[in-house]
Amino acid sequence: MRPRTASIFSLLLALGGLALIGMGVSSGRLGSDSAHFLVFLALVGISLVLIVSGAAARRGADDDYRKVLGTGAFLVCSGLVALAIFFGTMSALISRYAWGVLLAVMLLLYGTAMIMAAAVNFILSQKDYRVFAFDLFRQVPWVYYRYRT
Amino acid sequence: MDYDAIVIGAGMGGLSAGACLAAGGARTLILEQSGAVGGCAGSFENSGFHFDVGACIIQVPRAHDRLFETLGLRREDYVTFLQNDPTYEFVDILGGRRFTTPSSLEGTAEVIARFDPDDARNFLLLMRRYGPRFDAFNDVMMTTPQGRLRDMAKVFRKCPSGLLALPDVLKPYSKVLDDYFRHPVTRGLLSTYSAIGGLPPSLQTAMMLWLCHTEHDGTYYPAGGMGALPRGVAKAFGDLGGDLRLETPVRRVLVEKGRARGVELADGTAITSRVLVANNNARNLYLEMVGRDRIPRAVVKGLESYEWSPSCCVAYLGLDYRPELRAQHMVGLIDPGLTDLYLKDVYTKGLALPQSVGLVSSPSYMDPSLAPEGQASLALIAMAPPHPAGGTWSEIKWDFLDGMITTADAMFLPGLKDHVVFKTIATPEDFERRLSMPNGSIYAFSFSILSQMVFRPANRSRCVDGLYLCGASTHPGGSVPGSVFSGMMVSEMALEELDSRAGSRSARASSETGVMDGLTDRRCA
Ligand SMILES: Cc1cc2nc3c(=O)[nH]c(=O)nc-3n(C[C@H](O)[C@H](O)[C@H](O)COP(=O)(O)OP(=O)(O)OC[C@H]3O[C@@H](n4cnc5c(N)ncnc54)[C@H](O)[C@@H]3O)c2cc1C
To answer: A residues 102-131 near B, CB within 8 Å?
Structure first.
């Protein structure tokens, strides 16, 4: 992706993320059950699209960092979809209230994930910083354990 | 208890720690598995030629002066430093140019100006703008023990101007090269410092420009070879009443109720002490000598997560003539982009490429007594994977050695091939076997930002009481001065513990600042 396109894409992702968080916070006021259900379906749909495109990106990528980004998107979305379907089914069976809470949590998670994706996408699209930043991101999961040594 | 303190390993870190402990009045024993002191900063002799095991450049000489000052001794009485001037002879591998760089910034700028005047101006501008700031920050950082987040905060409290250096920590070295320098020779010259720091320019932080700045304060070589430095510190240790035992490998750390009580030697003998200082690799120390079952799982995970710094092969050659050299060190110069690709081939793909000879060092250039009359000793250093693809080092090392000689003959010293009367090689496998350096990694763990300071194994163990860590695998990390500073820091903490356990905190031990601060005050006042 060209840096300019990547910046616009990152901005859109971040705005989308913020909007989702806003919806999550106010989802109690979303109205009818059918509206809830539609939003829920939309989120699962987005995840499925991301899963497919993540898998494709992973396949086509020859750079380490794209492979990791693709794999990351794939895993996060698969996890979210599995969770959503499981809890969605369970809570729909249990109560309307639980259904609303679930939707709010999902919106918040999606919003946060989109903002993080925007930041990562933006940094990795900067030619000068890409390899350096990728190397740092790659080590982030170990930071706590290294601190403990 | 048999001793107040036992030190495992007589590398530069262990010797410095041992000497400072002895100077502080602690009954100290250093145990070294090999037959000589110095570890990878040691020397050996064969057929009348003297060679440096690994390290062959003394950067940051003030570390050593500070060490001897702390011991209350004069460094000159134990080891003499000879200044490298010119510092390097650079050989432009693709362009065929050769030139030397002097030890002054202005002199190096003049050399750069021959290729590109704008680059020369930018070089001086960068060095003057960032050099002092980086120096100040590094002096404090390298002399403040690390373990917890508050230790990191302490660095910035002692040197607030270090905060200004933070954006540069998060900037890649390659970005500075791209922003400021145009000519391939200048870019190659400066990327040398990134490679010396153990990472390619795209992964190195811009902070590593510090090395370029600080090397212009002067680089040195000890009279008598690199090993004269550890031998000098070992002699000081002996003069201060310490005991040193060579060929005495330690097998296990004795831990009782979460506290280090001493060591068990390979022959089964137990020696007890009140505190223990380890100079060997932290991963070996915890996972093999303390034992996985005695440390928290998070620590095991952390230790296993570290990546290794580069490893290399060193060819040691005796020559029947004195080649016409212009400096002790010759450095092969290529574009930073190529350095990146090369390092990737070697360390990611595991390719053993004898063409990767990057540094040539001649001990006898600085001190002619290090080779027989009219002859010369020479070392060739090549990047090399720890585990070569498609074979083991034992299988390929002699062919690799011949390949290195052919490369040096073609690139650095034409005619060299016909004058080799002695040759041998140390591979990463040899470094690992002889010095217990895992993977033969020259600086132990990698120098990436997330393996430094509090993210490197702590100087005072966080899981075994009475255990202190110094040397390349702990803070501030690999290199001779880094190991010396770590040894000085842990000795101070260990003495403090010995004093407080004896119920008599000395004025020195209770001071907030401690022995390391003379150095830092000078810069950060
Ligand atoms: C080829 C090469 C070139 C280098 N060039 C430079 C350079 O030019 N400048 C520079 O500053 N640095 C250089 N370095 C790095 C520098 O030499 C090291 O980082 C530094 O010397 C490490 O010191 P240390 O205190 O960690 O001890 P080490 O040198 O690692 O020594 C540790 C000692 O502990 C001993 N030991 C280990 N396990 C045990 C045990 N179980 N029982 C008893 N003893 C044990 C080992 O035998 C060894 O003597 C180079 C390194 C290499 C390999």
So the answer is: 128-129, 131
pTM for this structure? 0.87
The domain spanning residue B374 has which CATH number?
A: 3.90.660
74-103 in A: which are within 8 Å (CB) of B? none
**Chain B residues within 8 A of A145 when measuring between CB atoms:** 298-299, 301-302, 305
Q: Is residue B53 part of a domain?
A: no
Residue B457 and residue B433 share a domain: no
Say if residue B388 is exposed, middle or buried (CB neighbours under 10 Å; 0-12, 13-18, 19+): buried
Q: Which residues line ligand 1 (CB under 6 A)?
A: B 8-14, 31-34, 39-41, 54-57, 59, 249-250, 279-280, 312, 314, 381, 431, 435-437, 442-443, 471-472, 478-480, 483
Measured from the Cα of B13, ligand 1's closest atom is 25
A140 contact residues in B (CB cutoff 8 A) = 450
CB-closest option in B175, B282, B458 to A128: B175
Residue type at B511 in one-letter notation: S
Provide the pLDDT for residue A50. Answer: 66
Query: Is B240 inside a domain boundary?
Result: yes
Ligand 1 atom nearest to CA at B14: 25
Per DSSP bridges, beta strands B270-278 and B467-469 are parallel
3 state SS for B52-87: ECCCCCECCCHHHHHHHHHHCCCHHHCCCEEECCCC
Question: pLDDT tier at B390 (50, 70, 90 boundaries)?
Answer: confident
Q: Cβ of B449 and A136 within 8 Å?
A: yes
Whole-number Å distance between alpha carbons of B518 and B523: 9
Backbone angles phi, psi at B445, to 5 degrees: -75, 155
* pLDDT band of A7, cuts 50, 70, 90: confident
- What domain range is B405 assigned to? 310-440
**Identity of the residue numbered A3:** P
pLDDT tens digits, B462-504 = 999 999 999 999 999 889 999 999 999 999 999 999 988 776 4
Sequence-ordered alpha helix ranges (H) in B114-208? 117-141, 149-158, 166-169, 173-180, 184-196
pLDDT digits 0-9 by tens, B64-107: 999 999 999 999 999 999 999 999 999 998 888 999 999 999 99
Question: Amino acid identity of B182?
Answer: R
ipTM for this model: 0.90
Q: If pLDDT is split at 50, 70 and 90, which confidence band does B169 have?
A: confident
